[in-house]
Each structure stands twice: as C-alpha cells, then as structure tokens.
Sequence to fold (141 residues):
Amino acid sequence: MSRLLAVDPGKNKCGLLNSDPEKGIVIEGRVVASNDVFDLVISWHEKQAFQGIILGNGTSSSYWKQKFKDISAVYLVEEYGSTLRARNRYWEIWPPTSFLRFVPRGLLIPPVDLDAIAALVILEDYLKKKLVWNGPPVFKT
Fold:
C-alpha cells in the first residue's frame, strides 16, 4: 500500500490528508492546530511510511517544507483557489440533505472547517484524479 500525505498549510491550523492513491482512497483527513501537526504526521508515518508529502505552496509552506524534509520527499503544489474549490468538493462528497438539496450549492456554506478538504483538492490536483472519502471527517481542531 502506498501512502501520500497532503497538507493545506496555515498559521493557526492545517488540513492534513492521509491517502492511498493506488487504491484511490482517503484513509483519514483532519483539521489540526498548527502546534499538533508534526506529532500527527509522525504518528501516521510510523504506522505506514509516506512515499511523499504534497504541500500547498501558500501560508507557511516554507516552514512546513523544512519540518517535513526528514520524513519524506516534499512536493510543493500550487494551491491558489483550493479553499473555494474545497467548498464544492465537500458537497460532492457529502451532498446536502432535506430541504438543503434544493438550494444551489454555490449558496451553501459547509458547516465545518474546510482545510482537510483543501488538502484533498491539492492532492487531487497533483494526482490528476479524484479520490474516494468513505469515512467520517474530523474537521474540528
């Protein structure tokens, strides 16, 4: 099983996504306070080593690139617009229910932090394919 980590970097919180691109799945995604990012990455890496870390080139990316360089190869990826695209991707994965399904998706705002979904969008851009996310998300820091 191959693993890739995707990171949507931020100053206060980061979106992290542990994936198996060969199977086309998301293993786990989280929104984590910046102080806790490295510990979670190490924990995931100890369970199954990453073949690479896909890092958005935005806020604090140079800091995270330096922190991650000893864990695995780090690939900087353009992340412009990933947060807006994450909103649409969220509704693709978890479609609105009840009366909300009749509201145009452009008007809906997801009820969670989108950093993990932004990491997914960054990874999908890098892979040039969409991944399946079956499990429940952990979006609260």
User: Anything to note?
Assistant: The mean pLDDT is 91. Residues 115-127 form the longest helix (13 residues).
